[in-house]
Amino acid sequence: ALRGSFASKAQKSSPRSQHHLSPQASYKVAILGAAGGIGQPLALLVKMSPLVSALHLYDIANVKGVAADLSHCNTPSQVLDFTGASELANSLKGVDVVVIPAGVPRKPGMTRDDLFNINANIVKTLVEAVADNAPEALIHIISNPVNSTVPIAAEVLKHKGVYDPKKLFGVTTLDVVRANTFVAQKKNLKLIDVDVPVVGGHAGITILPLLSKTKPSVSFSDDEVKELTVRIQNAGTEVVEAKAGAGSATLSMAYAAARFVESSLRALDGDGDVYECSFVQSDLTDLPFFASRVKIGRKGVEAIISSDLQGLTEYEQKALENLKPELKASIEKGIAFAQKQP
Ligand code: NAD
Ligand code: LMR
Known about the structure:
This protein is of the alpha/beta class and 342 residues long. It is built from 11 helices and 11 strands. The chain is globular and about 55 Å long. One of its GO terms (molecular function) is L-malate dehydrogenase (NAD+) activity.
């Protein structure tokens, strides 16, 4: 859950008490692709965090206006804008967390893998710059196809000699956010209480909600399991179709990414109780990357929670086996792309 800190002290203060406002921590966050559909609302939500002292907004265009606009919000962080490749390096200097939502979104009829040809190059270029300028930062990859862009990022970082698998995250928080929402609706539960781990990857059948592990404990009929699983797997497509050519999820994605940023910052700040699902380098299965719950600490991934994959239902076990070939192929496609580049 977002916990209290997300509703910042600044929100509760009157304008007259502004001079009393200071960040509760001073982390620097960069958003690469900050002028986009996700980037803008994500920047707004991160601007509300009391843990952030500086917000660096980078895009190839249109970022000046976004930064000017946001900078008028009377919350602690300073907003800086960086436009175009020549300012990319500076946008990353001294940054603790880099969030990457740069890239093209789907249109109806497309799969996330159809974005590979454009987004693979974008992610590669941006992560090269992160390696050169913020090698210690936590990296949150949102750009699709996540199942391939995260392995690309790993290869780029390895090539640069700065790969720390504990610091590279594929953002799958939106799958958890959706699962929590849909389960709470279906079972008439209080939203704030519901937590469903979602494992595997972030595309179609590779998205596997573990409904049997829902907290609080709740029982589902076989039909409910099928219906909820399919809805969670297709939720991205649901939005793509509703937007009818105008893009994919941006607002719910920004909400989810902001939650993941806030969790990461709390972890960096010493909170010893931060757990999120994320697509990371993992030894939970025979695949090199896998999404599961992870414990995040001061140095990134502190532990991968293996218990979620124990005691699965027959349905979940079968779905897990079924997703592996597709996820494996997407991972290998990313690795092969990165390795054949100069
Ligand atoms: P968008 O087109 O609205 O915004 C993308 C932004 O990236 C634009 O502002 C564009 O100028 C910028 N950009 C393009 N190339 C760039 C580069 N080389 N450097 C920096 N910025 C660059 O798209 P969106 O709706 O914000 O979606 C962005 C990506 O996020 C898509 O790939 C989409 O599929 C993905 N996405 C992922 C999830 C997830 O759960 N992980 C959810 C929703 C969307
Ligand atoms: C999502 O799950 O909403 C994103 O991955 C965007 C998409 O293409 O569906």
